[in-house]
Amino acid sequence: MKRFISRFVCAIMLAAFAAGSAEAWTFEKDITLIEPFNAGSAIDPYAQMFKQVAEKHTNVKILIEYKPGGSTNVGMNYMFSRPHDGYTVLFGAQNGEALVATEQADYDEFSYVAIANTCGEQMVLCVRADSPYHTLGDIIEYAKANPEKFNWGGASTMGFQQFFALQVMENAGVKFNYVPFENAGETCLNVLNGIVDSGTASVSKVIPYVEAGEMRIVAQGLAERDASLAARDPKLFGDIPTVYETPGQDYNKFGMLFWTTRDLICPADVPEEALVAWDNLVNAVVQDPEWIEFVKKMGALTELYMNRPDYTAYKRQATNIYRDLYKKYFAQ
Fold this sequence. Notes:
- The structure is a single chain.
- By secondary structure, the protein is α/β, with parallel strands linked by helices.
- The protein folds into 2 domains: 2-120 and 260-329, Bordetella uptake gene, domain 1 (D-Maltodextrin-Binding Protein, domain 2, 3-Layer(aba) Sandwich), CATH 3.40.190.150; 121-254, D-Maltodextrin-Binding Protein, domain 2 (3-Layer(aba) Sandwich).
- 45% of the residues lie in helices and 19% in strands.
- It contains 14 helices and 9 strands.
- Strands 1, 2, 3, 4, 5, 6, 7, 8 and 9 form a 9-stranded mixed sheet that branches.
- The relative contact order is 0.20.
């Protein structure tokens, strides 16, 4: 977790430097924040709170427009159709990398800039409370003895959750069935109903089922164990290993975290002075006590904040990893 805290501090320094080195540019009209999902989605509370906190730090209003569909393609294309002047950005998650890698997008990874990841929520691997599998190692051992018999559920086909499952499978030299669902809620219900043996979902979706005694988390998706999760209830969450603690699942073999982001995206040709203004605005938001408290209550982590150069590089790296997996497993 120290690496994220260090990045957070560096981001503050970067924003201060950028503010002093570029011509001053301020927001002078309302900002449009595009959500590529329906109102009430898992992303929506974060977008609403970002709007609320950001409006304290600028003199303009932020208007949210919902543009769902096409696994965020509709929202991304709408963003590109608007003037590239810094007044229209997209607030979403990391769907774009997989869409580009699988040739489902009308844009590429160089068409947009990742302004920031405002915070993050780790993904976890969960099973029913009465499951015989207590660790990812147990699942791998079963899959070795029973090829293509284990059912692993997750949201969407050829998305980041399936690519993560493929990486686990490839690292372990096993085969199991990936079963796609519409969203995390549907994945959890199918784990509970025994339709799949395990499922991946954001930790906030799984925690209520664990606390109700219906599920267990067998692996965390961050590079290090989340201390805040353990502190929530040491008995339930205090000794859950990361995926990467499993033999053969070294973090370096993945090249990325298993998490869900809460990020801001804009076209790549937005003027630099507008991007610097966004750097400064996001920096103000992520340091605001109201935002920090909200993120904590949501079960997400402020330490997973990433600034513009770091996050843009991370997303391009992820795109290349997904592209290689797509070519290996799906492309004909």
